[in-house]
Specification:
globular, 3 domains, alpha+beta, four-stranded antiparallel sheet, Butyryl-CoA Dehydrogenase, subunit A, domain 3, Butyryl-CoA Dehydrogenase, subunit A, domain 2, binds flavin-adenine dinucleotide, 391 residues, 15% strand, Butyryl-Coa Dehydrogenase, subunit A, domain 1, binds 3-thiaglutaryl-CoA, three-stranded mixed sheet
């Protein structure tokens, strides 16, 4: 079931190529994800078996060019994210972490040798990457990170801990952000390096079909060329986040749309008081409210995509989509759940699963509060992330 509200002829704003990409990813999700996702989620199974198929679709590093990457537009990447997240947020996160975070870090900040060594294999799904920024004591405020990298002769030595790192236990390469005497730097850490250990965080009540880990870094010795030479300061990490946040702005619309479609179908079939529940005005109001939110969110996402493809997308605009679209999606999936009544709390129907996933989505890549403050700073010119100095 994949009904799209489409009150505004959204497709008319897409090129034939964009629609083709969208439809290809949608068909993949329908065949390879939708029939299995409830079981994967129930068993907290991360479906590594879909990785070759996703690579074949060209969604790893989709927006990157050269080095075997697909070189597609930002809008195509966004549409793919939307279709993947209609399947499950865990699937979109897999593609985000691999492409928007790990591959983007190497593509933006890596040496020629690092790009040649990793990007073609990552685009083919033969090597998996992860992106370690968050720490146990440093989440919304990565500037407070305590993981350290120190020079020891002709080696870098890393010590510290990272938390919530997507894919880390199955990754071949970890992008690790660490503090040095010269400021924050990024490092490529092969995960078989002695002293690197990744432990999945479990049990989780959200994102059950995906993996996030604690990482321990204990005296991890790396050659000097493990450093990403062009990553200078935290801004280098934030430049990668921009891409992942952009994809989330699209992805959450997929979760909302799938929930809407599920509720619409159910409302047409389920009868109470002698009528389909879709015949009740209160149900129709819910469906209309959901459709309006989905339509608006799609337009925001597309506007961002066009700006990104024109090279004009600003970080505060990404915050608009990350904040507003995630908020809208949460409202939609919860409303959809109510239409399903008691059946809505079973694994048979998707809205409750999407609702649980979206609690993670609203938290990662900048919480609701952080994106509110990014926009507050943009509107007023006054950053309010840190408490004012009382002196
Ligand atoms: P601040 O002083 O504002 O900035 C430090 C430097 O960074 C630059 N910068 C950016 N550059 C590019 N893009 C952006 N969006 C940027 N934001 C800031 C800034 O210009 C500055 O550069 P320079 O050259 O002057 O040094 O930094 P701050 O410490 O005050 O922090 C600002 C704040 C709160 C917005 C930032 O810390 C933040 O975004 N916090 C949220 C952390 C976060 O989002 N973590 C995500 C971890 S990865 C993840 O969650 C993956 S989820 C899986 C998935 O994606 O599916
Ligand atoms: P905290 O920063 O401790 O925030 C707790 C609460 O305080 C939040 O409501 C927050 O908004 C609020 N708060 C904090 N500061 C302020 C402020 N200045 N003003 C107002 N309120 C504030 N990280 C990675 O590096 N790589 C990954 O691959 C990755 N994947 C993730 C996947 C999942 C499923 C999850 C849940 C997280 C993932 N993260 C990842 C970590 C994620 O980015 C952090 O969880 C997020 O940045 C928030 O940090 P925190 O959890 O430490 O919460």
């Amino acid at each position: 079931m994949n009904t799209v509200p489409d009150l505004l002829d959204f497709d008319e704003m897409l090129s034939a190529e964009e629609r083709e990409t969208r439809d290809r990813v949608r068909a993949f999700v329908a065949e390879h994800v939708r029939p299995f996702i409830a079981d994967w989620y129930d068993r907290a199974h991360f479906p590594v078996e879909v990785i070759p198929g996703l690579a074949g679709l060209g969604v790893f590093g989709m927006h990157l060019s050269g080095y075997g990457c697909p070189g597609r537009t930002a809008v195509e990447y966004g549409l793919a994210a939307m279709e993947l997240e209609a399947g499950d947020s865990g699937l979109r996160t897999l593609v985000s972490v691999q492409g928007s975070l790990a591959m983007t870090a190497i593509h933006l900040h890596g040496s020629e040798e690092q790009k040649q060594a990793w990007l073609p294999r990552m685009a083919r799904g033969e090597a998996i990457g992860c992106f370690g920024l968050t720490e146990p004591g440093s989440g919304s405020d990565p500037a407070s990170m305590t993981t350290r990298a120190r020079r020891d002769g002709d080696a870098w030595v890393l010590d510290g801990a990272k938390r919530w790192i997507g894919l880390a236990s199955i990754a071949d390469i970890a992008v690790i952000w660490a503090r040095t005497d010269e400021g924050v730097r990024g490092f490529l850490v092969p995960t078989d390096t002695p002293g690197f250990a990744a432990t999945p965080i479990a049990p989780k009540m959200s994102m059950r079909a995906s993996i996030q880990c604690d990482i321990a870094l204990t005296d991890v010795r790396l050659p000097l060329d493990a450093e990403l030479p062009l990553a200078r300061g935290l801004g280098a990490a934030f430049a990668c986040l921009n891409n992942a946040r952009y994809g989330i702005g699209w992805g959450v619309v997929g979760a909302a749309r799938d929930s809407y479609a599920t509720a619409l179908a159910y409302a047409g079939e389920r009868r109470q008081f002698g009528q389909p529940i879709a015949a009740f005005q209160l149900t129709q109001q819910k469906l209309v409210d959901m459709a309006l939110e989905i339509e608006k969110a799609q337009l925001v996402a597309l506007r961002l995509g066009r700006l990104k493809d024109a090279g004009r997308l600003q970080p505060h605009q990404i915050s608009v989509a990350k904040l507003a679209n995630t908020r809208a999606a949460i409202a939609v999936v919860r409303k959809a759940r109510t239409i399903l009544g008691g059946n809505g709390v079973t694994a048979e129907y998707s809205p409750m699963r999407h609702a649980a996933n979206l609690e993670s989505v609203r938290t990662y890549e900048g919480t609701d509060e952080i994106h509110t403050l990014v926009l507050g700073a943009h509107l007023t010119g006054i950053p309010a992330f840190r408490a004012a100095d009382p002196s």
